[in-house]
Amino acid sequence: MKEGEAGSRRPKALLVCGPSGVGKGTLIKRLLDEHPDKFGFSCSHTTRKPREGEAEGTHYHFVERDDMLKDIEDGKFLEFAHVSSNIYGTSFASVKKVIEEQKKCCVLDIDMQGAEQVHEDGSIDKVGVFIMPPSFEVLEGRLRGRGTESEKDIQIRLETAKAELEFGNSNSIFDFKVVNESLEEAYAKFKEIALIAYTGGAVSQ
Ligand SMILES: Nc1nc2c(ncn2[C@@H]2O[C@H](COP(=O)(O)OP(=O)(O)O)[C@@H](O)[C@H]2O)c(=O)[nH]1
Ligand SMILES: Nc1ncnc2c1ncn2[C@@H]1O[C@H](COP(=O)(O)OP(=O)(O)O)[C@@H](O)[C@H]1O
């Protein structure tokens, strides 16, 4: 076995959850850029419109609501959720592509409802990490600073964030919590957790 290859244990999926604007996408992008051989992103489906710079099939599969509802009915999704007035979901195909075809650890960026469904389903061996903001004010500042949402959408996301933070603080789905204050420190911790998922190792905090 070559150095850096996963050991005899199979890589687990890495479930990344946390409120909108907390930095999930930033941390995940950095991980994928640094370790493209080890980690692959599960490209979700969404009914929301693409933001500037987002590409079909890379960030999301951008789909029409009716098509997504039909695919959900046809059983194509491992999990799905209505988040901030849009539908988001992880197809079986996207997870299979990363785990079985690419043989990498599959990174899922999903909301709390999705995390709960994956946890209860139990068919995916996973490590769960919840990303926390240093404070609600900082979260709001990041969301506004990103400049990708309308004021109405920001308000919806902040409302959802309150429930997400309570959820992250009070359940056992997540093996780890990372406070994203300094990006360097948060990324170092996040990477360490991701590598635990990659090696399929036992989780100890
Ligand atoms: N359940 C579920 N949630 C998802 C999925 N993809 C993204 N999300 C979540 O949907 C929420 C909104 O995502 P997005 O519109 O990209 O906005 P952002 O989180 O503010 O960058 C976030 O909490 C994501 O974690 C998915 O496939 N399933
Ligand atoms: N540690 C950090 N310090 C300051 N700004 C950050 C930090 N992490 C992320 N950001 C910024 O916050 C905004 C939201 O991050 P993003 O990764 O889009 O969050 P999410 O994917 O959780 O919605 C982005 O503009 C990003 O550059």
From TrEMBL:
The keyword Transferase is assigned to this record: yes
Endpoints of the signal sequence: none
EC main group: transferase
E.C. no: 2.7.4.8
Keyword set, alphabetical order: ATP-binding, Kinase, Nucleotide-binding, Transferase
Domain of life: Eukaryota
Domain Guanylate kinase-like residues, every copy: 11-195
Gene Ontology CC terms, in alphabetical order: cytosol
InterPro entries membership: GK/Ca_channel_bsu, Guanylate_kin-like_dom, Guanylate_kinase, Guanylate_kinase_CS, P-loop_NTPase
GO molecular function, one term: ATP binding
Reaction catalysis annotation: GMP + ATP = GDP + ADP
Entry's family note: Belongs to the guanylate kinase family.
Protein name stated in the entry: Guanylate kinase 1
